[in-house]
Write a structure and sequence with these properties.
about 0% strand, mainly alpha, homotrimer, transmembrane (chains A, B, C)
């Protein structure tokens, strides 16, 4: 499916850019910035493939993802003071990548006959584990665990794809609808500043 | 072995509660709290299965662990101001989970014909790696590496099970004795405030 | 190849020492220090084997690595105030380990018919992922991502081995030349204080 592959590459580029930017912010050297870009872009899919037992992971089979991540990270390294201008487009590209990664992850889990939670987890993990690794390597609490509707949009999309897959709807339609659900949810979350509830704090609790 | 399965679920619930509490303390949103509960409860066994090459890991084969972790984390999220009352029972449940996880991990490694250190490591990892992931995701130095007798109780139990397995003692007895050893050690450590030695510090060393 | 195995053990010892020292600096107890020594020494090769799908990883097949790491970490724990005297020798041993680990990692990837980036990554990962795990477990931004020429020396060595492997040069020569390249680069980096460029910072960028 060529559309999915193109979207996958676009998402990879957006994720690599976010990783490279995080590296620059933490004052890493060129190697660190490239590494962080690469891990952010490919870490989620790698973890998914490890858990599915599909080794070596996809990135080692099609090195396009590696070359693209390195190229984007290098570009961010060289021109990062102009990346500020790209902040909004990057946010949208990130949403696009999120939707694509979720349906690729959940779709692959369905091919491996995973159950409901397993399939949804694989989608969420494909989309968010790279970002978590980025934050862990920068010694921060993963944004994904604190931020506005991000991982939960992935969750919704993964669950939707699992359910659609039980219906007679053709697979490509199910993929597109689920990816769109994630993207729309995420874009709305950005625009309307949605966030998930936090546990009520009572004084005296540390 | 139904007793072991029940203890396993009890331990899972206790670990999920400790993960969810850590998430609330770090001001995570609902998704983060559920995620941290799930990772704490299932991360150790998942890592063990990855290392043994037994993929997909157990939690993807029996989704009960997932549902239980989510349920417990959600309950902690909703009623966390009352969890304070449960602090002591939770500590005992945690000790119970520790003992159970160690013998499950070391037992599985023995089935895979691992050597002495490998078998002990698998038990320790099953019991403690989930908690380490919890601490890494909360951007803290893992408690397990600093705290009073915790991982070392697991170490003792795993080594005991390995040795008993060389004797003609029936397997269920070996499992029960080793699990009890961990639990008793851990409970004593809590009550008598035992701790392992730290390296002597000399001034001038940073 | 007996020389490679001996160098591998030397490198393992040097890495275990650096892990154990990090544990002592973070005020960990005996278990934590042993654990950190072991993870630093064996974590890179374990991750490589997981990604190659060669499970269980090498350390579980030849427990020598485990025993050596434990022995070295214990020695560092007991005599760490005298380790200061060993700082320079340790730095050289570390460079030796680096070169050895890179060629072992890239060499194994070539046996598994990985592509260019995959093979280089496997070498870099074998040499640096253990140190990254050490830093993550001590809740620090991995040194490798910030420091002077370290991972980039591994990168150069891995790429060199990949290229030499395309020539008719006998495999042992290719291994030795590539390992020496890493070691010489690393030793020069220490002596001449080489470092990779960082992205230029402009004020106003956070």
């Amino acid at each position: 499916m060529n559309l999915l592959y193109s979207l996958d590459l676009l998402g990879t580029a957006a994720f690599a850019a976010s990783g490279a930017l995080a590296g620059i912010r933490r004052d890493m050297d060129l190697f660190g910035v490239l590494m962080l870009g690469m891990v952010t872009a490919t870490g989620g899919g790698t973890l998914r493939d490890l858990l599915l037992g599909d080794t070596p992971p996809f990135i080692f089979k099609d090195e396009t993802y590696f070359y693209l991540s390195i190229f984007v990270s290098l570009a961010v390294f060289l021109f990062h003071h102009r990346v500020g201008l790209l902040q909004l487009p990057l946010l949208y590209l990130d949403a696009l990548g999120l939707g694509t990664f979720v349906v690729i992850g959940t779709g692959k889990a369905l091919d491996f006959h995973m159950g409901f939670i397993g399939s949804v987890m694989m989608g969420v993990m494909t989309a968010t584990a790279g970002g978590m690794m980025r934050d862990i390597l920068s010694s921060q609490v993963p944004l994904v665990l604190q931020k506005e509707v991000y991982a939960s949009a992935c969750l919704a999309g993964g669950a939707l794809l699992y359910l659609l897959h039980l219906t007679p709807l053709p697979a490509p339609w199910a993929l597109i609808i689920s990816a769109l659900a994630v993207i729309v949810l995420r874009v709305c979350a950005i625009h309307f500043n949605w966030s998930l509830p936090k546990a009520p704090r009572n004084s005296g609790h540390n």
